[in-house]
Amino acid sequence: MEEMNIDQLYRERVIDNRQLKMVDVLKYLLQREDVRSLDVAVGYFYLSGLLLIKDEFIKFMDEKNGQLRILMGNETNGQTANVLSGSKYKDYASYISNETQKDTDTIDDGEFLARLAGWIKEGRIKVQVYTGDANYFHAKSYLFAYSQDETHGTAIVGSSNFSRNGLEGNTELNVLSQDNYYALHRWYSNLWLSDETQAFSPDLLKIVKNNISPRDALKRDYKPVNQTYYEFANLYAKPYAKLDEQKDWVKELFPHQRSGVISIKDKLDSFGTAVLADGVGLGKTRIAGGVMRLYKDDSAPYKTLIVADKKLKIQWAEELDICGIESADYDWMSREEFVNIPWKQIRNMKYSLVIIDEAHIGFKNNNTQAYQKMRWLKDQHPELRGLMITATPWNNRREDVINIGTLFLNIDDIPNDRNYKQYLLLGGRTNKAVRKIAADDKAFNQLWEDIFLQRTRKTYGGKQAQFATRTFPTVDIQFEPRKNKIFSDNFDAIAGLKFPYMDPIKYLDPKKEPLGAKQLKLLLLKRADSSWVAYRNTLQNIIDKLTQLKTNLSYVTSMPGKKLTDRFKGMLSEAYELPDYQAKNQLTSLFNISADDTADEHELRSRNKKRIYLDKITKQIEDITNAKAKKAVASMLADCNEDLEVLNLVLNKLNQAYQHIDEKMDKIISVVSKE
């Protein structure tokens, strides 16, 4: 091992067992700190080959919690071809078992076999056999990475089987590379999950156990008592910690917030992520501030990125200040600002913790730009922790919950007994893996227990629990009689509006339900009840749109037959953004591009509905005759004039009534001043 020229390995990258031996390269790579996962695809895998790298392999498995996947095929020697000729996999399976038994019989290191049996039983060594339609499985690849879901790593591809001859005896040709790791890793994972392979681990475990003597089976490397306690604590203990109640910032926390700070920090330290999903009013922001304060006190410098809505910035600043967090301790960014950051710039962002508020917006779907860019940031900085905050993690589907919970999740830190770990190791962070976790109740419940903290006022602490007292004073406002008259007439005025620019296809389809217009009427009523300024501004915006539409329609009516029809068709197409939709379809067809490859089932259904709707609209527009166009334009123009007359009247009355006094504003200012 010491004689291997590492500079030569990375300079020439050729491993032929002459100047550089495969066995020495394997030993070197297994000892690298960034290697904790090894995926091997070979014609045949001899357990005896592990004896050549025994010491390094034991350290890899024990000290780094290593993971080994072996994908082996039907290329071992000429005898295999004879066995396979005219036979089914059942015969080949028997042959594989017999060959493995013969190979294992040559291993007289019973202690090492006992270790192998333990690793297989734990699921850290997995073996599958290729059973596809191809005559032979000739693949020879060795993939080294930090974890089985990594996109970066080191690959060796060539001719060496995992045998003594392949690793040091024969003259072989293998090439080391990092550039093609991702493509090979994707190929390996897809084949591993496909129907072309079949599990061989249980058979291998039986064979190995049969070769372990009773003495070796009982032999153990006994550990010091302190180490045993430590390992048991890591496996079974619940976090027991207590905040220093003498500190001023801790005094500002309610009991449930103190326990929340401890629980969330433990999840972040254990898994690299946590989801704080407490109900509304339990003080999630202050809990997040407490977590930030603990990290600030533990290590310096410790910089946090907070991704949240701009309108919440002042509220966050006030809550963080209570916990002793200064503005220099964090950067603030809205979701939109983060999405607009170039990919190259994201690579250079350096934070210890990311907090995402309202995480169900933009991060429940792993195909959004916000999700993918945040995942890219995590990939560049594996030590980065992520705290997701949402009072509503559920949005009809388990997949939403899983996407939120796994964005920052360190897969290697998940205990081996968790079912959801296996799905993530095998399938990576893909929609396929997410769906498998969602379909497995045990796996999903384990993920929820590990990552999520969700409490409500009813579920936390019983009757003795204390929460912040919230009082919402009722303010009685007396309006002038003429204003009361305006508001009472409001419903009748709004109910008769047509809003011709909303979903204009209704002028061609009498059966069309004018949903857009109904929603706009409801919005107007809400605005009128909320604020006269908001109501007035909304009315003015509608009037501006109607005025522009009236100008366009007046121009169209002056055109002769076919020109009027063509112009009207163009107006409808623009209203439904059909030119962009059609151009996208043409590009997709021309270059054979599919946007559905990474979409989940929910998104595919949504896209399909939209496609059907727009295709229907397109057909209706294409079928417009001159007579239909003329009639529709006349109806739209008439409705436009009626709406403008009503809205201008309402707006004028509103402006006159509020010209001198705004009772609601004055009353609120008075109440706030007294507070």
From TrEMBL:
Pfam families: PLDc_2. GO terms for biological process: DNA repair; replication fork processing. Residues 265-411 form the Helicase ATP-binding domain. InterPro entries: Helicase_ATP-bd, P-loop_NTPase, PLD-like_dom, SNF2-like_sf. Keywords: Coiled coil, Hydrolase. It comes from the Bacteria. One of its GO terms (molecular function) is hydrolase activity. PANTHER family: DNA ANNEALING HELICASE AND ENDONUCLEASE ZRANB3 FAMILY MEMBER, SWI_SNF-RELATED MATRIX-ASSOCIATED ACTIN-DEPENDENT REGULATOR OF CHROMATIN SUBFAMILY A-LIKE PROTEIN 1. This is Phospholipase D-like domain-containing protein.
